[in-house]
Write a structure and sequence with these properties.
By secondary structure, the chain is of the alpha+beta class. It folds into two domains: 137 residues, no CATH class; 71 residues, Ribosomal protein S6/Translation elongation factor EF1B (Alpha-Beta Plaits). Helices cover 57% and strands 16% of the residues. It is built from eight helices and four strands. Strands 2-3-1-4 form a four-stranded antiparallel sheet, with helices on one face. A hairpin with a 2-residue loop joins strand 2 and strand 3. Helix 2 runs antiparallel to helix 3 and helix 3 packs parallel to helix 5.
Length: 224
């Protein structure tokens, strides 16, 4: 047999599907599903959005199993592998991911599916534990945990100095984001980092020219 015939035979053997026992396939997909459920539970614990989107949670967990199934199929035959690459290259997902944490969990689920599909269960469990520890440690570190938006309306623009003095005395840091001076008064919007919410509002309200003072929670981080 010539070298060319040997190379051709070796290449064609790669197109022959390697049969995998059904019990092994079920075991792999079952373990992958359990890891997907684990990701589902962790996401519910750290999710802070007001509206609960169950469809996204379920999709995020099941996509882990689907990815593992794709990896198993790609391992069985070169033909399927090439077909998968071609099919996935033309897929376009146009659903916008609004929260970066959603993107993190989605990528985590896909990654776990790839790892489990390759049969590296110990690695999948280690990755899951390390990612969970990293999420909880970084999520609850005290980095500016109380950001607020302060809105003040007063009828005397000359009292701006008194308002800023009150804010300074009852907050760790603040920054004026908007200042609107009218003939009838002054409107101000500030970012405030404080742990004395009630004292801050009372101090500002005690200024005679202040008509209204509102403190709103701010989703995100404040930088001063």
């Amino acid at each position: 047999m010539s070298f060319q015939d040997a190379l051709k035979k070796s290449f064609l053997e790669g197109f022959t599907a390697n049969e995998m026992p059904t019990s092994m396939v079920l075991a792999i997909l079952g373990i992958t599903f359990l890891i997907g459920v684990y990701i589902f539970i962790i996401y519910k614990l750290v999710n802070r959005t007001a509206m609960y989107d169950k469809s996204y949670h379920v999709a995020m967990s099941i996509i882990c199993v689907i990815t593992a199934g794709i990896i198993l199929a790609m391992q069985s035959s070169i033909v399927i592998s090439l077909g998968m690459v071609g099919a996935l290259s033309i897929v376009r997902f146009r659903t916008a991911v609004k929260d970066t944490m959603d993107l993190l969990f989605l990528f985590w689920s896909i990654g776990e599916g790839i790892i489990c599909g390759a049969g590296l269960f110990e690695l999948a469990i280690v990755v899951a534990l390390i990612v969970t520890a990293g999420i909880f440690i970084l999520e609850y570190l005290p980095f500016n945990k109380k950001p607020y938006i302060l809105i003040v309306n007063c009828n005397d623009p000359g009292d701006e100095k008194n308002i800023l003095e009150s804010v300074k005395n009852h907050s760790k840091a603040y920054k004026v984001r908007s200042r609107n001076i009218k003939k009838t008064g002054l409107d101000m919007i500030m970012e405030v980092s404080t742990g004395q919410e009630s004292d801050l509002l009372k101090s500002i309200s005690d200024i005679s020219s202040v008509e209204n003072a509102s403190l709103l929670t701010h989703e995100g981080e404040v930088r001063f």
